[in-house]
Every structure is written in C-alpha cells, then in structure tokens.
Amino acid sequence: MREDDLRESQNIDDRRGQGGGGGFSVGRGGLGIGTIIILGLISWALGINPAVLINGAQMVAGGNSGYVSQPPPGRTGTPNDRTGIFVAKILGETEDVWSQILPAQAGRAYENPKLVLFSGATASACGTAQTATGPFYCPNDRRVYLDTAFFQDMKRRFGGGGDFAYAYVIAHEVGHHVQNLLGILSKVQALQRGGRDRATANAVSVRTELMADCFAGVWANKMNQRHANIDDTDVQQAVAAATAIGDDRLQRQSSGVVVPDSFTHGSSAQRVRWLTTGLKTGSMKSCDTFAAETP
Predict the structure, then answer these.
(1) N vs C: which end of the chain shows fewer Cβ within 10 Å?
(2) Given a cut of 50, is residue 143 above it in pLDDT?
(3) How many domains does the structure of the chain reveal?
C-alpha cells in the first residue's frame, strides 16, 4: 500500500509514554475490532472458555460510562515517528473520503473524530482504554483509541500484518464513528436493551460489526479511486486479517468448540464477505447488514 499521497491528519491526541488509566472504572459503549483477538489470546493462555470473556465484553452496549476524569491531553497534531505518521495519514484519508461520500450517499455532513494514541492504558469516556482491550471507538466522546502495539500482535500472533491490514483496523473503527453520526449506534443500543437474551444482543452486535467492516471496504474503494494505491496483495492482507479475527476461528483455536450464539463480531467468512462487499461496490447502501436475511 502506497501512502505517499495521503494527507496527515492533525486530529491526533498522542498520549504514548504518558501512562495513566489506573484507577478509572470501566464503562460501556466502546466498540472494538481488536477486543475479540485479545480476549481469545487471554482465554488461550488461561484455559478459559472464550465465550465467557467475549460475552462479558459486549462493545455495543448503551448506558452511562464509568468515566471519572481524563488524563492531561497528550501531544496534539501529527506525530513524528513512523508509526504515528502512518496512523495520521490513514486517519487523514478517512477524513477526506468520508467528508465527500457521507453527504453524497447519506445526506449527512461528516464530523471528524479524534484518534487517541496511547501505550498501556488511558482514560476514555467509555472507561479505561487498555492494550488488552484492543482498538475501539467510544461513541460517548467520539474518539478512536489505539495502542499501536496491537499491530505487532496482529503480525506476530496471527500473521495478519501489513500496512493495508493496519489501515483496515483504523477504518473499521472510523466506520463505527460513521454509524454513530447516522444514529445507528443509538438504535443498536435500544435493540440490545430490548432483547430478551444474550444471543439476541450478540446477533445485533454481529450485524453492527459487519457493517463497520463493510464501511471500511467502502472507504478503501474510494481511497483507491483517489490514489490508485492498493493492489491485490494489499487486499489479500486485509482479507487475511478479517479471516484471522473471525469469532469461529478464534473460538476453534482457543477451545476447539465453536459457539455461534456467542459470536459478537461475526465469523471469518462473514467478515471477509462484508469487507469485500464494501471494497467492490464503494456504496454505503450495500452495507445494510440489518436488512440482510443472513448477515
């Protein structure tokens, strides 16, 4: 993936090396593509059924956060290290793309989110952001939280590395921001509160996550139209990442047992399907996972 032509966003709050996060109570509302990977690893190491951890980490839940206070803000603007610059460029491209396609395809002006880079732990309006929870979007403060050590985990643990795979992670979380702007997340929270059982809440979560995958694909489609900067190898990287973090694959690796009712992000096949749908069509309408009979 070429990134030379991508504009660097200034909407970065760089808290790396700042520490913090201790003493903040954990809230609800964060949405993370990385959470299921880390939970799978924890369950793997401890011998715990991953369904227990995954179910307890629902990331699309409403209600008030346990947020207490924010730490002092970090450095604002584009970082000067290689990883930070890469993140700023991907975020800048999501700003440029969504500011065009959201009004054109959904009749809604785009509002840029902030992206918080941290190491170890930091506070968010959805509770404590920690390395162990992976990247996530917090609708309560409209920020994406990312410890870039997660990229190394993707590469080392699952062979899912590569710049476009990392860009997909960021674009997925920005996809949740788009859902928030469109009022989708509030509707999701209402559906989950009205659900009668955990399986129903999980099913709603899966459709929400798959839509964010599809939105990431829509973004990549438009980015490529603008810059012609991804090729088949890049797409294979993203597909490999989507495959690696499917609920079924993680559960099979950790316990040997697949429990579909406990899925919160979707199977490998589902994640690949919706990512590639967005990538091929470039249309938000193609991403309506809630209208699909089978997501």
Answers:
(1) C
(2) yes
(3) 1
